[in-house]
Design goal:
Blueprint lengths: L1 E7 L6 H9 L4 E5 L5 H6 L1 H19 L8 H25 L3 E4 L3 E2 L4 E4 L2 E10 L3 E3 L12 E2 L1 H4 L8 E5 L3 H12 L3 E5 L11 H13 L3 E3 L4 E6 L4 E5 L4 E4 L1 E4 L3 E3 L26 E3 L3 E3 L10 H15 L14 E3 L4 E6 L2 H7 L4 E6 L4 H6 L5 E6 L6 E8 L2 H12 L5 H5 L10 H10 L11
Parallel strand pairs: 1-2, 1-6, 2-3, 6-18, 8-15, 9-10, 9-15, 10-11
Antiparallel strand pairs: 4-5, 5-6, 7-16, 12-13, 13-14, 17-18, 19-20, 20-23, 21-22, 22-23
Helix pairs in contact: 1-8, 3-4, 3-6
The structure holds flavin-adenine dinucleotide (FAD).
Length: 453
């Protein structure tokens, strides 16, 4: 069987290219060994945000002295429905656009052939959208019962009393917030200086204070040395000599690219030290017909990045005018109640690069939208180039930050000035008003905050 294009991996980096190319009349085959939609649809973005939505509602009711309790089984069933419906919509689209979907693990034989279960497929172009697996921690291996990854923690049949999270990165913090909202005793153990170690300290500290108020226990600069499983609990031995007991452990220390045992060595694909596929600017991984994109090539492991890369590859394969990704524009978003959205450089990165910058920071708790949605730790911080006022980076710590960062993108892209923003009617009562407030503040004419002159 000969195909114009073969795509290995049906996640956010794979299916968009498959659909696009099939739509344009190419004969496309897509291989998926697990579930269409990949990590995002089945074990990541979709189920985690469904739980998040419910858990924030519970938090809000509790805050005003209400009694909020969810039925765990029916919530889980709703989450499953959301995921299943999302996945079947994608399957239907692939079917309707004429993409041939083959179940099973694909391995590459040479620059024109790959095989699944002994059946050989011939291809013209190949897209490697292989994604990642959750990374285990040394000898603390996933057992799908007490020691969990994101793939199980979002599908627990019963609510655990307690959850120990190893790793205070994005996934660890998102899950901590969500489970704490639902009344689970959560402990985070982070090996580095602070949770969300890649962020500026003021960002991490805000989230830390916010989580501490929800009774999340946080250990920083602390390692889990070993664990012991008992009948109904698991014990974790920490480097500070404390012993933590929990019903479940979530290991969220990072991801491993699925680039092994796929035959990549047969087609001259290079991997970096961490096992991610090395690509050029046009996302070519080897020669003119082998491409790779999404989590498997590293960079920010985010679905919106994977999706755009996939479309850019598809356009290139189709011989159309394509585009290269401006990675500076990929917002990092963290859905942690008090949410975080980051664009461009952090202060930490600017210092590391030796770049001079000016920083303006506006606490935004005074905005009604923030006050209602709850968090006194909210702020917007923008770093500027002092020479020409170009925006180096934006950090938003507030409810809805992951949504409203889109309003900040034009500023970051240089297509909006503070003067224009100050005259733009950002809708009341939304957190996006923070942008106009920020402009007024920078221009020295704030209405809603008092500045002594
Ligand atoms: C808990 C969690 C929450 C997240 N939340 C968000 C969020 O809110 N927003 C966001 O932007 N990102 C989020 N992410 C990240 C997002 O899920 C990933 O960036 C995205 O899934 C990457 O897509 P991908 O297609 O590159 O890889 P994957 O989704 O991993 O897909 C790769 C697919 O390839 C298949 N595959 C691999 N090798 C083979 C082979 N040899 N043969 C056949 N099939 C193969 C795999 O089975 C898999 O289905 C989250 C991740 C997690 C874990």
């Amino acid at each position: 069987m000969k195909y114009d294009v073969a795509v290995i991996g049906g996640g956010v980096a794979g299916y968009p290219a498959a659909i696009y190319l099939s739509m344009k009349g190419f004969k496309v085959v897509l291989f998926e060994e697990r579930l269409i939609g990949g990590e995002c649809t089945n074990y990541g973005c979709v189920p985690s945000k469904a739980w998040y939505y419910v858990s924030e509602a519970v938090k809000t009711l509790k805050k005003i002295g209400g009694e909020a309790r969810i039925d765990w089984a029916s919530t889980l069933s709703w989450v499953r429905d959301v995921v299943d419906n999302t996945r079947s919509s994608l399957e239907e689209l692939l079917y309707k656009y004429g993409v041939e979907v083959v179940k099973g693990k694909a391995r590459v034989k040479d620059r024109e052939h790959l095989y699944v279960d002994g059946i050989v497929f011939e291809y013209g172009n190949l897209l490697l959208s292989l994604g990642t697996d959750p990374k285990p921690l040394g000898n603390i291996v996933f057992d799908h019962d007490k020691v969990l990854s994101n793939r199980e923690v979002l599908y627990l049949d019963d609510k655990p009393e307690s959850l120990l999270i190893i790793g205070g990165g994005v996934i660890g913090v998102e899950i901590a917030n969500m489970f704490a909202n639902l009344g689970v005793n959560v402990v985070i153990v982070e090996a580095l200086d602070h949770i969300l170690p890649f962020t500026d300290t003021d960002v991490a500290l805000s989230i830390k204070k916010y989580l501490l108020e929800k009774n999340v226990t946080i250990y920083e600069k602390t390692l889990v040395k070993k664990i012991e499983k008992e009948e109904s609990i698991v014990k974790a031995y920490l480097s500070n000599d404390e012993i933590i007991e929990a019903d479940k452990i979530l290991v969220a220390i990072g991801r491993s690219p699925k680039t092994m045992d796929v035959g990549l060595e047969n087609i001259g694909v290079s991997l970096d030290k961490a096992g991610y596929i090395v690509v050029d600017k046009e996302l070519r991984a080897s020669g003119s017909n082998i491409y790779a994109c999404g989590d498997a090539i590293g960079g920010p492991l985010l679905a919106h990045k994977a999706l755009l890369e996939s479309i850019s590859v598809a356009k290139r394969i189709a011989g159309e005018e394509s585009f290269t990704i401006n990675y500076d524009l990929v917002p990092v978003t963290i859905f942690s109640g008090l949410e975080i959205a980051l664009l461009g450089y952090s202060e930490k990165e600017l210092r590391g690069k030796g770049l001079k910058y000016v920083v303006k920071k506006l606490p935004i708790y005074y905005l009604s939208a923030v006050r209602i949605k709850d968090s006194k730790y909210s702020f917007v911080k923008i770093m500027f180039d002092p020479e020409n006022n170009r925006v180096y980076g934006v950090e938003i710590v507030s409810p809805n930050a992951s949504e409203i960062v889109s309003a900040y993108l034009p500023l970051y892209m240089g297509s909006l000035t503070m003067e224009t923003i100050a005259k733009t009617p950002y809708p009341h009562l939304t957190v996006s008003e923070s942008l106009r407030e920020f402009a007024e503040y920078v221009l020295g004419e704030p209405i809603h905050i008092f500045i002594k002159r």
